[in-house]
Amino acid sequence: MIVQQANVDDAEEILALQKLCYLSEAEIYSDYTIPPLVDTLDMVKCDFEKYFFLKVTKEGKIIASVRGKISSPGNCYIGRLIVHPDFQNQGIGTKLMSEIEKIFHKCHRWELMTGHLSNKNIKLYKKCGYEIFKTEKLTSHLTLVFMEKIRKKHI
């Protein structure tokens, strides 16, 4: 298993993995029009201009990915953490979260969001040190949960 920076040539494989991984989210909310499922290849390629992508490969195949970007001075937004269903619950998501935080080590705050019924995601993010700081009702079926991790100040 190798963690490394992804590049735009990986966009098609990352998009296919993203669509596979987000099917379970769509099922939870009975909504197959969530952004990760309707993203196009061009949209993902454009994201490479804004985000730093990490990928995990095993035997030459991408099995996990995450992306991050500076959202405002000192703040990093983390998005689209995906791990192939066959490789979940093996610490890969936790490892990717740690690695993306290291990439953006100069930030004092990292932020992400997930859906309110996405209990596995919320549990993972809490395990990584994230706490809920706000919620936002999007539709009658979906409330977004915003989570943050703030760097502890050294005394």
Explain what this protein looks like in three dimensions.
The chain is an alpha+beta fold. The chain has one domain: 3-Layer(aba) Sandwich (Aminopeptidase), CATH 3.40.630.30. It is built from five helices and seven strands; from the N terminus they run βαααβββαβαββ. The chain has a seven-stranded mixed sheet with strand order 1-2-3-4-5-7-6, with helices on both faces. Strand 3 (61-72) and strand 4 form a beta hairpin. The longest helix is centred in the N-terminal third of the chain and has 19 residues, at 11-29. It is globular. The relative contact order is 0.15. The mean pLDDT is 95.
Would you summarize the structure shown here?
By secondary structure, the protein is an alpha+beta fold. The protein is 35% helix and 35% strand.
Number of domains: 1
Number of strands: 7
As for the CATH topology, it is Aminopeptidase
Give the oligomeric state of the chains in this entry, treating copies of one chain as homo and distinct chains as hetero. Answer: single chain
Low-confidence runs of at least 5 consecutive residues: none
CATH class: Alpha Beta
CATH architecture: 3-Layer(aba) Sandwich
State the separation between the terminal residues, measured CA to CA. 37 Å
Give me the CATH superfamily: Gcn5-related N-acetyltransferase (GNAT)
How would you write the strand order of the largest sheet?
1-2-3-4-5-7-6
Number of helices: 5
Task: Indicate the percent of residues in helices.
Answer: 25-40%
Average predicted local confidence, pLDDT: 95
**SSE class:** alpha+beta
Identify the overall geometry. globular
Secondary-structure element order, N to C: EHHHEEEHEHEE
Strand-residue fraction? Answer: 25-35%
| Sheet of most strands | 7 strands, mixed
| Rg, nearest Å | 15 Å
